[in-house]
From TrEMBL:
InterPro entries, sorted: DUF3605
Organism of origin: Emericellopsis atlantica
Listed GO biological process terms: N-acetylglucosamine metabolic process
Name this protein carries in UniProt: N-acetylglucosamine-induced protein 1
GO cellular component, as recorded: cytoplasm
Amino acid sequence: MGSCESPAFWNVNIPPEQHTFSCPEYLRHLTPKDVGIIATPDSEYTAQSWDEVRQIVATNSLESFKRVPSDLRRYRSFVYRLVQDYGSVHAFLLKERLRWEEPVKPRGAPFELEDDYKILFNDWPYGVDKRIVHLVVWTKFSLAEDPKTGDLTDQARRDTEAFMEKVFYENVPRERVIWFKNWAALKSVNAVEHFHVMMYDPDPCFVQRVTQGDVPQCLREAH
């Protein structure tokens, strides 16, 4: 008779011949949330819809974003190898993705000069509707936060909205674009300022233009 036991969480979503008795190093020390996600078969995962994404951002429930289980596994493996090769996510980001030299300093006021920011794909996007494009705007300048609330100051929000108007809202209907800045506790990269932009079914030509032909790491790693 076959065994009815569920596989260990680290053996879910991989072929039986790749199962291991012990947990791989890169999947140790995960949060309970990540363990639960990786233990979920991909076939049981439901992509978050555009309406759900908008609700998450509107209610500031950013911790509700999740990756597809197998994508989260690949992401953890990638980060583990990256830290071994580069020493930190920060070092990899500056050298390979942004190609900025330290110390990172802006030449102008927020969003004034194009070489003070860079728009790239989110390398490991959330498990959302495939029509949703997830970009990250990396900046050499800080986006000021209210120390009492952790939210952007009114001026920083006005500056960001003006940038969004010029770059995104003129190319994608406003109701199909949202942006948000992760709280510090949720950031995977703290050392370089950034915020997220998600668009529903944008023109691929616009996406290619605004990212200057960028390819996310999740696709690079697939080859």
